[in-house]
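Page 37, continued from 36.
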């Protein structure tokens, strides 16, 4: 491997990493917000909205992100909706992630025993207080493993952003390989920078899973 060449590529990979992380975390924030809202709708069986949430979940979980991005980037302009590549990437990732987060948080809510509801209500707590102070913390705690897995999955899915002209890590690696034919060097740097982005998330998720425990979910 040509280490000198690899060092010269570092600024380009740094820029690509910052872009990838910016879009990735914006999309994940949107996904978590959608997931919490959708999970509450499905768990509490809100009429009509539950069917819409279930249809959304099935649609986005069973279609590839690449197709969703193509639809947002190429199809929406045909009906007058023009979005920048970064906005397309953010919302594409957010909508895909929202479907997975909905199921993760729904599972967390369903895992809270009914006796927790009954015990809290017997103490005179309102339904809002029961949900915010008793049910929600336990549901989020039990959802941490799935949440971590979803975050890692979504950050890895950013690798398809190159298809809509975003200078992400994958685009940068392919561009450099095409120009300089330094395949091994570029791929090693690609792996290294993905590890920089993903390994801290994996470690943090493990720590949170061990520490944020409540009720019978704890050690």
């Amino acid at each position: 491997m040509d280490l000198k060449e690899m060092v010269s590529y570092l600024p380009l990979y740094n820029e690509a990493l910052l872009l990838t992380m910016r879009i990735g975390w914006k999309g994940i924030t949107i996904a978590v917000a959608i997931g919490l809202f959708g999970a509450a709708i499905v768990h509490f069986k809100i009429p009509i909205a539950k069917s819409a949430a279930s249809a959304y979940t099935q649609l986005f979980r069973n279609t590839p992100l690449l197709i969703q991005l193509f639809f947002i980037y190429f199809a929406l302009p045909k009906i007058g909706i023009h979005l920048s590549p970064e906005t397309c990437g953010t919302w594409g990732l957010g909508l895909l992630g929202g479907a997975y987060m909905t199921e993760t948080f729904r599972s967390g809510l369903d895992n809270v025993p009914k006796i927790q509801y009954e015990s809290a209500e017997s103490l005179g707590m309102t339904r809002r207080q029961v949900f915010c102070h008793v049910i929600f913390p336990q549901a989020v705690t039990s959802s941490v493993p799935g949440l971590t897995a979803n975050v890692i999955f979504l950050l890895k899915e950013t690798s398809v952003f190159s298809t809509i002209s975003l200078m992400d890590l994958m685009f940068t690696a392919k561009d450099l390989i095409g120009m300089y034919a330094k395949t091994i060097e570029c791929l090693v740097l690609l792996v290294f920078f993905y590890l920089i982005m993903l390994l801290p998330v994996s470690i943090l998720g493990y720590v949170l899973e061990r520490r944020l425990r409540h009720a019978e979910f704890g050690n």
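The helical segments are 3-43, 49-61, 65-75, 85-110, 114-122, 127-157, 169-180, 183-211. Flag for discussion at group meeting. Confidence is low (pLDDT under 50) at residues 214-219.
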